[in-house]
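[Q] Does anyone have a clean structure-token version of this?
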Amino acid sequence: MSLSVRSATRSDASGFLALIQALADYEELAGPTEDAKERLIADAFDGHTPRFFVHLVFEDEATNPEPLGYTITFFTYSTFLAKPTLYLEDLFVRPEARSKGAGGALFDFQVREAKRLGCGRLEWTCLDWNTLAQGFYEKRGAHHLDDWQVYRLTEEDFARWS
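[A] Here you go.
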């Protein structure tokens, strides 16, 4: 099987959005609203500097133009390393493509990107119930951090600040 990973372009928007909806379905969540879809496309493809980077994986794209999976990444920064961190927001592969190596191709691509871009780390979070993903990451040598807790404020929470 011939797998390839490449940067997404605006012409990939419909396939990218379909994969995001497939992820929402997999996690039993509502997908993005129409407004959110417009923001996703604008933030990824419009303007001089994208807010995040999208990569797609294909199996023989010439004969099958539908992507099997995607990643979204962006930069954070480590003050102690004094280097950027490539943050992996999403790594998703359609369930029917998971045994084809598409997830590994996407992950390996992101590791190489982090290295190429001079990053000190590649980091991400994983849902506690997603043991399939946890096993995938641990098989590749990833370390689960027990000493860090994720915190969040939402837009609704922002309303308390003026």
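[Q] Thanks! Anything notable?
[A] Residues 103 and 124 are 15 Å apart (CA to CA).
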